[in-house]
């Protein structure tokens, strides 16, 4: 491999400077500010602050609203990850079997990833509106008491569907690339030996997709915890009766609506730690079952 030599020692840092600046300003600085504010109680205008130590963190354990949001987040994140990964894998497998127009099918399936989360949420809200939405009206005609603006479980199902639909295209891209990297000779040899399509997929295709699946599992978990805020905010606003209020949405509500900056900062720190621990557990336990060819 040929080694790249820069003419000046500062040129690599100069090329990295824009990305480093963005990371510092939009990631590290807000994280450090949140960690600092988590130990203080301050007025909404930030004019007066009082050091309270771990009081903001202790209050979370006794806050029923935060514990409820943690439960909603667990159900929501697991549902989004499972649906998005399963649908992405299924669509990638079906698109791989298309002989003519495969590129067109893949392009059409990838389009939803370009839709902003808030726009995706509004699309699903219109489609499943009980009064005007196509699917909402059909559900009511079929006898389903469908009203996601009043029924908490239906509202949660709606935002789960919208968030998963938004992420399916991302998963499809990586699964399709992983399927193309699998040697066709292995699948053909198994077919000659008498293995059916289901057995070939479970014993050959899916194990060889395990590196891609593990990567997407981590990415989808982070997505479900953080990047689904726009969907929830556009569709339900955390309602009805906080049925769709996840931890990241509660951070926003307590910080920007209730103006309790100390509690909001403490929640953001706890959320960051939870996602970090969950990702670490995935790398420590799930990665052991990953087969790298």
Automatic annotation (TrEMBL):
Its main location: membrane. PROSITE patterns: ABC_TM1. Signal peptide: none annotated. It comes from the Bacteria. SUPFAM superfamilies: MetI-like. The chain crosses the membrane at residues 65-95, 107-135, 155-180, 201-226, 261-281. The keyword Transmembrane applies. It is a multi-pass membrane protein. Residues 70-282 form the ABC transmembrane type-1 domain. Keywords: Cell inner membrane, Cell membrane, Membrane, Transmembrane, Transmembrane helix, Transport. It is found in: Cell inner membrane; Cell membrane. Belongs to the binding-protein-dependent transport system permease family. NCBIfam families: PRK10561.1. The complex is composed of two ATP-binding proteins (UgpC), two transmembrane proteins (UgpA and UgpE) and a solute-binding protein (UgpB). This is sn-glycerol-3-phosphate transport system permease protein UgpA.
